[in-house]
Amino acid sequence: MKFKLTSLEKKWVLYDVGNSAFTMMVATIFPIYFNYIAGNAGISDVDYLAYWGYATSICTLLVAILGPTLGAIADTKNFKKTIFCIAMGVGVFGCLLLGFLSSWIWFLGVFVLAKTGYSASLVFYDAMLTDVTEPDRMDTVSSHGYAWGYIGSCIPFIACLGIVLGAGSLGIGMQTSMILAFIITALWWLFSSVPLLRSYQQKYFSEAGEHVVRNSFKRLGKTFVELTREKHIFVFLMAFFFYIDGVYTVIDMATAYGQALGLDSTGLLLALLVTQIVAFPAVLIFSRLTKRVPPERIITICIAAYFCIAVYAYWLDSQLDFWILAVLVGMFQGTIQALSRSYFAKIIPAEKSGEFFGIYDICGKGASVIGTALVSFLSQVTGRMNIGVSALSVMFLVGLVLFRAAARMNREPGQQR
Predict the structure, then answer these.
(1) Helix 231-260, helix 45-74: angle, nearest 10
(2) N or C: where does the chain have the smaller number of CB atoms within 10 Å of the terminal CB?
C-alpha cells in the first residue's frame, strides 16, 4: 500500500523544505562568497578554510549549550511553538542581513547568528515529530522530511545560482547578486514555515506551574540523571555523537574544502546540486526498506559507507573525484539523518521530547564543533587539507562500534517504548 502523509505531517515536512534552502546555501554559495571577500582582504586559502571551520564550530557550540535548556522550557505546555518561532526568526533575519555585508569578520559574525538560529529551530522541529505522527510512522515521516527537503531546496538554489553565476550578463555586481540570493533563501524559508506554525499543537508536554524556567531546569537535571540509568539511550547518544560529527562536518565544509583545493567553483556547486538530487530517491528507497529491514541495520550500513567516504577524501584532488564524492554522500546523507532522528524519537519519553532532542542536538550538530575544528587544525598544522578531512574516518569507526552496542541494548526486554 502506498504511504500517504496526513495534512499535519505534510506541513511538518514542508518546514524541512524551507530550512534546507538555507542549508544548501551554507554548503555552497556561503563559503564561496566568504572566499571572495576573504581573498579581497588578503587571507590565504588555508586560513580561509580554517576561519570558516572555526565559525561553524562556534555556532554549533552555542547550540550545544542553549539546546537542552531551551528544549526543557519548550516541553512546557504551549511553549514549543513559541521558542521554535523565535529561533527560526533569528535565522531568517541573519540570512537576510548576510547579503549586505562586505567585511569578512562581520560576515562570519552574522553567519554564526543565522546558523545558530537555524540549528536551534531544528531542536524544536525534531522534537515536534512525536506530536505530529505516531511511532510506527516515524521512520517514514522523518525520511520524507529529509527527502523533500533535499529536492525542494533545489528550487531556490537554482534561482540563486543563476543570479550569482549570471550576475555579469544581468548587469549587476557580485554584491547585488548575493543580496538577491540571500533574500530569496530567507523568504523561501520563512513562507515554508507558515503552514506548520498555523496548524501545530503541542500534544505531549509538562504543565507550566508557577516557575516555568526554574521547573524546566529541574526537569533537565532529572533528565540527565535518567540518562545514566537508560543505558540504551545513553550509548546511542555517544554513538550518534561520533558518527554524526563526521556527517555534519562533511556538509559544513565540503565546498570550502573544494575551494581550498583550487577546484572550479561552478563545478563544485553543480556537484553539490547533484548531491541533493541523488539524496531525494535514496532517502525514500531506504525508507521503504525499513518495512523489511530493521532501521538499525540500515543505519549501520550508512555509517560504514561514510567511513569509506572519509578514507576516499584523502586522495581527492580533482573535479571528478569531488563529483564521485558528492554522489556517494547523496546516497547516504539523508538516510543516516532521517533514521537516526526517528530511531531516537522512538526510544525516548514523548513528553520530554524537547529536553531529549536538546541533548540529541549536543551530540549532533554540537558534536560537529570537534569535526570542523579537527579538520581546520590538522589542515593548518600539516599544510595538507586531505589529512584533516580523512581524519574523520576515525569518528565514523568509533560511532559504528558504539551504535552496534546501543542496538543490542535496545533489543533487550523492557527497553522498547
Answers:
(1) 150
(2) N
CA distances from 271 to 106, 233, 268, 326 (A): 29, 37, 5, 6
- DSSP codes of every residue in 83-150: HHHHHHHHHHHHHHHHTT---HHHHHHHHHHHHHHHHHHHHHHHHTHHHHS-GGGHHHHHHHHHHHHH
Neighbours of 71 (CB within 10 A): 31
* pTM for this predicted structure: 0.76
**7-410 is a CATH 1.20.1250.20 domain:** yes
Residue-level pLDDT at 122 = 86
| CA atoms within 13 Å, Cβ hemisphere of 308 | 12
Task: Quick: pLDDT tens for 376-389.
Answer: 777 777 777 667 67
Query: How far are the Cα atoms of 136, 180, 193, 262, 265 from residue 162, in angstroms, in the given order?
Result: 42, 11, 25, 22, 13
Which residues of the chain carry a pLDDT beneath 70?
1-2, 45-46, 49, 67, 71-72, 74, 204-226, 251-263, 265, 365-369, 385-386, 388, 412-417
**What pLDDT, on a 0 to 100 scale, did the predictor assign at position 218?**
59
Distance CA 323, CA 249 (A): 18
Contacts 24+ apart (CB under 8 A), 178-184: 178/29, 178/33, 178/98, 178/99, 179/99, 179/100, 180/99, 181/25, 181/29, 181/99, 182/25, 182/95, 182/96, 182/97, 182/98, 182/99, 183/96, 183/99, 184/156, 184/159, 184/160
Distance separating alpha carbons of residues 238 and 220, to the nearest angstrom: 18
DSSP state of 76: B
Convert the pLDDT of each residue in 188-216 to its tens digit: 999 999 999 999 888 866 655 444 455 55
> What is the domain partition of the chain in residue ranges?
7-410
3-class DSSP state for residue 206? strand
- List alpha helices for 200-264, DSSP H: 212-229, 231-260
Q: How many CB atoms lie within 10 A of CB 57?
A: 23
Give residue 212's pLDDT. 47
Helices 138-165 and 29-40, packing angle to 10 deg: 40
Are 99 and 182 within 8 A, CB to CB? yes
Say which residue the cell 507558515 belongs to.
194
